[in-house]
Design a protein that fits this description.
Its EC number is 1.11.1.-. It is built from 13 helices and 6 strands. By secondary structure, the chain is mainly α. Helix 7 crosses helix 11. Bound molecules: protoporphyrin IX containing FE.
Length: 302
């Protein structure tokens, strides 16, 4: 499968896609629908089960990662939700600096087609977006932490004239530059900003949290890990699932691969980063090698 050559330990289009897919899968969960006993969404992998879901307009751009993951539940005899949400946490850790998020497995098959009209738009207002995330079960603080995933994100459909532009000046690194790049008056060259992200950076109800992550990777790591874990289990109770976090690879600590410039500001050094990637991602980078019993396959580099 061609995708495996991109899917073994490096930050790129498929890892970005996997993180966004994990959100779009879980982001159709609604406490309101649950209270009414109506068909609901969940972190259930419905994208890999209902071929129509990825065709919805709000899911534009998720076709490649969905196609890559769709055969895996049957191939490995596990549920779509486990495959899709595991891909999301692997997508985070594939990017240098990405934290190790707890992994839970054992989700049953999806119950129904995901409800429509629940995913956020970059043109929604702050109250609408915080309200929608509250209906998923997130505090506004969780939402601001989760938004940092836009630090390794690109846009293709919001403004096609700027397709491929990223929301952060260091798109291949899981860092906090997104929070600064979104807050400053003028974005760095090549950085595309969503109106909703800019609104969060300046709205009285969210700006303190947003600015609190500027130059503060440790706090963001901690808050992001907790919020992503909640996202990856929306609609489930972890007491019904099994924790298999020990199978996750190590995170690449950015302070170990960074060097100070003349002003003392740390920058990731490409040589150190590649050496760390070779060390910490060796089992993924080597074809035919598996981590702790996770089944792997030989990458086809055609
Ligand atoms: C207010 C909430 C959010 C809004 C309005 C929003 C909106 C968007 C939009 C419009 C795109 C670009 C799609 C395109 O044009 O290609 C995007 C990309 C992305 N989003 Fe979000 N998003 C939100 C929250 C999240 C969350 C919670 C996560 C994950 C934790 C996330 C992860 C991503 C990623 C990784 C991408 C990049 C995908 C790629 O490069 O292929 N987003 N988001």
């Amino acid at each position: 499968m061609r995708v495996t050559s991109d899917y073994i330990g490096r930050c790129g289009d498929l890892s970005r896609g996997a993180v966004r897919l994990a959100f779009h899968d879980a982001g159709t969960f609604s406490l309101r629908l649950a209270a009414l006993g109506l068909p609901n969404g969940a972190a259930d992998g419905s994208f890999l089960w209902d071929p129509e879901e990825v065709l919805r307009e709000e899911n534009n751009g998720l076709q490649s990662i969905t196609a890559a993951l769709t055969p895996l539940p049957e191939k490995f005899g596990v549920s779509p939700g486990d495959v899709l949400q595991l891909a999301g946490v692997l997508g985070v850790i594939a990017c240098p600096g990405g934290p190790r998020i707890d992994v839970w497995v054992g989700r049953p098959e999806p119950l129904n087609v995901a409800p429509t009209g629940l995913l956020p738009s970059p043109f929604d207002s702050v109250p609408n977006l915080t309200g929608r995330f509250a209906d998923m079960g997130f505090a506004a603080t969780d939402l601001i932490a989760l938004l940092g995933a836009h630090g390794t994100a690109k846009q293709f459909f919001v403004d096609p004239d700027f397709a491929g532009e990223s929301m952060d000046s260091t798109v291949d690194i899981w860092d906090v530059n997104f929070y600064n790049d979104t807050t400053v008056a003028n974005p760095p060259p090549g950085v595309f900003r969503f109106q909703s992200d800019v609104n969060f950076a300046h709205n009285a109800s969210t700006m303190a949290e947003f600015h609190g992550y500027i130059d503060n990777q440790p706090d963001w790591d901690q808050d992001y890990r907790a919020a992503h874990l909640l996202m990856s289990t929306l609609g489930y109770n972890t007491s019904d699932l099994t924790n298999c976090t020990e199978l996750m690879p190590a995170s690449i600590n950015l302070t170990l691969v960074s060097v100070p410039d003349a002003s003392g500001i740390l920058h990731v050094d490409p040589v150190l980063l590649e050496a760390a990637t070779q060390k910490y991602r060796a089992p993924w980078l080597e074809s035919n090698t598996c981590v702790d019993g996770i089944r792997c396959q030989t990458p086809n580099r055609e």
